[in-house]
Each structure stands twice: as C-alpha cells, then as structure tokens.
Amino acid sequence: MNSMIKSEQIYLDRIDRQLSFNVREANEMGFLVTTLIFLVVGVIASLVTRICFNQGPSTNLLHLTLIITATVCCWMMWAIVYLAQMKPLIVPILNDTE
C-alpha cells in the first residue's frame, strides 16, 4: 500500500514539473509570437506607406521614421505591461491608519 502511494506521488511530481515547464514555455512563446506580429505589422505598414505615399526621398524617410518609431513604441508599451504581469503585486500591505 505504501509503495503504491509513493509511486503515485512520483507520478504526480513528474506531471507537476512538466506542467510548470509548459507554462513557462508558453509565456516565452506568447512574448515571441506577439513580438513577431509587431514586426510584421511594422514591415507591412512601411511597405504600404512606401507604395501609396511615394512623394520623394525626404518625405519617404520621414514616413519610414514615423512608422518605425510608432511600432517600436507600441511594442515597448505592450512588452512592459506583459512583463509587469510576471510578478504581480498580489495583496498590498496596508497600515492600520489606512
């Protein structure tokens, strides 16, 4: 009976380790996939701007700079919010006076 409980515990520990690894891997995968989505959207926006609003080298450079800046800023905002959720503040500690 005791050996059966030990074997079940070993099995449950193994499943727990696999699940925790998969959650970590899923977090990394979500970050990578969304980063690639931002990259693809930035490239598509750059190409569309280059094709539709071709007004000379100076203006094209300005358009490209604005699109790259907007894409990087949006990605950084998303990344900061996403990474801030990795270790959230669960319960704030309040004083008796608050």
Q: Can you put this structure into words, describing what you see?
A:
This protein has 98 residues and is mainly α. 81% of the residues lie in helices and 0% in strands. The protein contains two helices and no strands. The protein has helices spanning 2-52, 57-84. The protein is elongated. The N and C termini lie far apart (54 Å). The mean pLDDT is 81.
Structural class: mainly alpha
Give the averaged pLDDT, no decimals. Answer: 81
- Rounded to the nearest angstrom, the radius of gyration is 24 Å
Low-pLDDT ranges: none
How far is the N terminus from the C terminus? 54 Å
Topology:
Blueprint: H1 2-52, H2 57-84
Q: Key terms for this structure?
A:
single chain, mainly alpha, 98 residues, 2 helices
Question: In a nutshell, what does this entry contain?
Answer:
Helix content is 81%, strand content 0%.
